[in-house]
Amino acid sequence: MFRKTPEAFSTDPQALALSKDAVAKGFDAGCTDQEKLFLYMPHMHSEDLADQDAVVRLIEAMGNHDGKNSAVEFAKEHRDIVAKFGRFPHRNALLGRTNTPEEDEFLKSHGGFGQ
Predict the structure, then answer these.
(1) Under CATH, which number does the domain 11-25+32-109 receive?
(2) How far apart are CA 2 and CA 12, in angstroms?
(3) 30 and 38 Cβ atoms separated by less than 8 Å
(4) Rounded to whole angstroms, how far apart are CA atoms 4 and 93?
(5) How far apart are the first and last CA of the chain?
């Protein structure tokens, strides 16, 4: 919904708040692994490094299951981008933000994530 438009990110703050509240209340304890990954996704979409660190910890804490290693690596990739740039450069054009020279260089070799 709203792919490749600024509206694609318009409800991210609400989704993140709901996700954080659910995790704080322990609702994820009763979830399947796939449900947990869905619940934690708003953390991965956040441009706040603390949220990125949290999603890496949450996924690592899930233990061993099919797909966990790739989910952890995907979360770490997101975190590393936010750690380096303070944001996701692939969102800049849609959100009317100007790229830094470093972000321009990064985007030449990185296709970005879903927009």
Answers:
(1) 1.25.40.10
(2) 13
(3) no
(4) 10
(5) 10
Per-residue confidence band for 113, with pLDDT thresholds at 50, 70 and 90: low
Encoded tokens for 89: 């450069």
**For residue 100, which amino acid is it?**
T
Query: Which uninterrupted H or E stretch holds 104?
Result: helix 101-109
| Cα 81 from Cα 92, distance rounded (Å) | 13
pLDDT digits (tens, 9 = 90+) for 12-36: 899 999 999 999 999 999 999 999 9
Q: How far is CA 21 from CA 11, 80, 112, in A?
A: 16, 25, 28
- pLDDT (tens digit per residue) in 80-104: 999 999 999 999 999 999 999 999 9
Domain ranges of the chain: 11-25+32-109
